[in-house]
């Protein structure tokens, strides 16, 4: 794993910079910049108090935190959220409470999502009359079989 330089503007200087919980983690924790409660089924765009300058050729991906999903049913509504290299506004997270009965409360500074950086390539789209054949072909959703438990 290699590291890249990521300029971060602390719009809320009282909140710490994103950090990795473990040295080999893929995602750095994003923090909540305000106190809030998400009611069952509610979604809200939550500020993180920071802006970033993603380098050209890279993308910032905002992923849910697995612990919040398992324990509280909270996920990122547009997962993964995309931060393009040209965006300089505040990073915000679209949190969704999927729990049907319980509200979830977040305090300022709580970890709400994780930021992953990934190299990207842009495609040169070219029309063709036919695509090359593969074993799979046009088999889509469920084409390889679905195992269900009773």
TrEMBL record:
GO molecular function: dUTP diphosphatase activity; magnesium ion binding
A Pfam family reported for this protein in Swiss-Prot or TrEMBL: dUTPase
Enzyme class: hydrolase
Domain of life per record: Bacteria
Keyword Hydrolase: yes
EC number, UniProt record: 3.6.1.23
Catalyzed reaction equations: dUTP + H2O = dUMP + diphosphate + H(+)
Cofactor annotation: Mg(2+)
Residues where substrate binds: 65-67, 78, 82-84
InterPro entries, per the entry: dUTPase, dUTPase-like, dUTPase-like_sf, dUTPase_trimeric
Pathway as given in its UniProt record: Pyrimidine metabolism; dUMP biosynthesis; dUMP from dCTP (dUTP route): step 2/2
Family: Belongs to the dUTPase family.
Biological role stated in the UniProt entry: This enzyme is involved in nucleotide metabolism: it produces dUMP, the immediate precursor of thymidine nucleotides and it decreases the intracellular concentration of dUTP so that uracil cannot be incorporated into DNA.
NCBIfam families, per database record: dut, PRK00601.1
The name this protein goes by in its record: Deoxyuridine 5'-triphosphate nucleotidohydrolase
Taxon lineage: Bacteria, Bacillati, Actinomycetota, Actinomycetes, Micrococcales
């Amino acid at each position: 794993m290699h590291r890249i330089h990521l300029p971060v503007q602390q719009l809320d200087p009282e909140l710490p910079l994103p950090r990795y919980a473990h040295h080999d983690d893929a995602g750095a924790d994003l923090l909540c910049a305000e106190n809030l409660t998400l009611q069952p089924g509610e979604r809200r765009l939550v500020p993180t108090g920071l802006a970033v300058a993603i380098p050209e050729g890279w993308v910032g991906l905002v992923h849910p935190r697995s612990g919040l999903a398992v324990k509280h049913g909270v996920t990122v509504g547009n997962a993964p959220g995309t931060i393009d290299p040209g965006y300089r506004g505040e990073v915000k997270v679209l949190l969704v409470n999927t729990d049907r009965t319980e509200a979830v409360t977040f305090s300022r500074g709580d970890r709400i999502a994780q930021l992953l950086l990934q190299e990207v390539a842009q495609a040169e789209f070219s029309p063709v009359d036919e695509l090359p054949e593969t074993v799979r072909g046009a088999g889509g959703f469920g084409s390889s079989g679905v195992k269900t438990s009773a």
